[in-house]
Each structure stands twice: as structure tokens, then as C-alpha cells.
């Protein structure tokens, strides 16, 4: 019994809350509450924090996706530009190829002498006089053009190309003022031009190309240096004529010489009388004169030559055109 009593007493003793025990309980309560509060608060603040972060990230993402879209568009633009550039390049290449392959005529370039007016004024039975100037341009081309302009006369210039860098304007002026631009070889060097058909061809093409570059017109007129009857050619002139024919180029010789080609010079009055004295015997007169740095007397003779021709009855001064029947010392053999 005693034993049982003492256990009950112990039980009673433990169920009694002492202040110390209460204190401990309170502390425990606080700890638990704080822990619970912390357990609730931490995730909440975490959530808020994360929420803010997420929304900020969202904004960033949105702006980034806008940037990506913009970049994409730019890329497409660049790609388009690229494609366009590529297309342009290929068109350019194509055009270059065509330009190389096509003759200027095929590209619709104007033909020298085609726009020259005056032929419609010709009447039946009129004497036709063609003033032709070989070897230019030179320091005198402008003077010759000025004189022709003063008299309202159109002429034909058979020009060369080598060493004429200072006279490129003269080629243009000849064309612009309505005269006919003819070819007289690029180099005017007999040993070179007449060495072979290939050399003749290369020389002519070089001049034709130069004139086309400078004036935009194609010349279809040729005057053989020394004439088609020259005795210096090492190539059969018939070969050269056949080539010109195939190129649709007409060559013109002359039937009146002003005599100004002679070395040592000739006076202007001599040139005038030589030209004028022969005119009467030609219904179609092709007058050979020269446009060269050592031929001042030709320039001086020109006004009088023109005046004397204009004083002749039923006589007209014309430039060579595609309709001009050529005078040829050597004709194409059939
Ligand atoms: Zn010449």
C-alpha cells in the first residue's frame, strides 16, 4: 500500500506546474510560434520575392523576344538585300557578258553619219562635194570645225587613235556638230596595220572601240591609210576588203587631192587651186585634205575652198552618209 501511495504522490507532484516549468513551456510556445510564423512567412516572402523576380524576368523576356523578332526582321532584310545584291551582281555579270558578246550595233548604238541632215536637200543633177579630213584629230581640228560651222557645212573626218589622248573632245565635237566620224586606222603605221589580216582587224577594232567609248556612236566608214590602192600592204587588199564587207564597213577613197600630204608643205593658195581646178570634172567629188599639226595651210585654205564651191552652180557640200555611193580605187573582186 505504501508503495502505491508514494507513486500517486509522485504523479500529483508531476502534474503540478511549477513557475519554472511554466516558463519553460512559454519559451517552448514562443519557439514553436516563431518557427511556425517563420515557416509561413519565409515561403510567403520568398513567393513575393520570386513573384517580383518572375515578373521582372517576364518583362525582360518580352523585350528580349521583341529584340529577337526585330533582329530576325533585320536578318531577313539583310538576306533580302543580299539576295537583291546577288541578283544585281548576276544581272551585271550578264550585261557585261552581253556587252562583250554583242556588237555595239546590236545594242542599238547610233551609227556615225546617220543623224546627219542635209541629204534631203539634194536635187537631181546637183554636183556633190564631200570634204574629207584624214589623220586627225590635231591642234587644228577645232579651227577646221569652227570654219565649217561658220559656213554651215558638214564634212567627214577619217580619224586615227594612237597618241590622240589630248584630242578626245575633238571626236565628240565632230559627232555633236553633225559631221561624219570615219576611221583611218588606230596606229596609222603601215608596217603594223598591213602586216596581216589579224593585225588589220585588231587595229581597226581598237579604233572603233575607242570612238564608241568617246562618242557613243559606231563608225561604219573607213579610209585605208595610203588608200585602198596603196602599194605598201603586205596583205592582199582583197582580204581586207572582204573583212570590211563582213563588218558592214564601207571604205572611201578620193578623186580629188588637195595635195597637202606632201612633205615640206604646200601653200594655202596652191591647195585651193588644186581642189577647185579638179571639181568641174567630178559629179561626185571626194576631196582629200588633212587635219594634222603640220598642216596649217589646209586650215588657211579651207574658207576659200568652201566659198568657191558654194559659188558653183548646182553644187552642194555634203558629209558622207550610209547613202553615199563610195569611190574606191580598188573594188571588191567578184
Ligand atoms: Zn593618213
Your description of this structure?
- The protein has helices at residues 2-15, 19-101, 141-150, 168-176, 190-193, 197-215, 237-246, 268-279, 296-311; strands at 127-134, 156-159, 180-183, 221-222, 250-251, 256-257, 284-290, 315-318.
- With 334 residues, the protein is α/β, with parallel strands linked by helices.
- Mean pLDDT is 83; it is low at 76-102.
- The protein contains nine helices and eight strands.
- Helix content is 53%, strand content 10%.
- It starts with a helix and ends in a 16-residue tail after the last strand.
- Bound molecules: zinc ion.
Rg (C-alpha, Å): 50 Å
Catalogue the unreliable spans. 76-102
Total strands:
8
Instruction: Decide which structural class fits the backbone.
Output: alpha/beta
Number of helices: 9
The biggest beta sheet reads:
6 strands, parallel
Which strand-content bin applies to the residues?
5-15%
Report helical residue fraction. Answer: 40-55%
Ligand catalogue: zinc ion
**What is the helix/strand order?**
HHEHEHEHHEHEEHEHE
Mean model confidence by pLDDT = 83
Produce the secondary structure layout:
Layout: H1 2-15, H2 19-101, E1 127-134, H3 141-150, E2 156-159, H4 168-176, E3 180-183, H5 190-193, H6 197-215, E4 221-222, H7 237-246, E5 250-251, E6 256-257, H8 268-279, E7 284-290, H9 296-311, E8 315-318
Parallel strand pairs: 1-2, 1-7, 1-8, 2-3, 4-5, 6-7
Helix pairs in contact: 3-9, 8-9
Residues 134-135, 184, 188, 225 line the site of zinc ion.
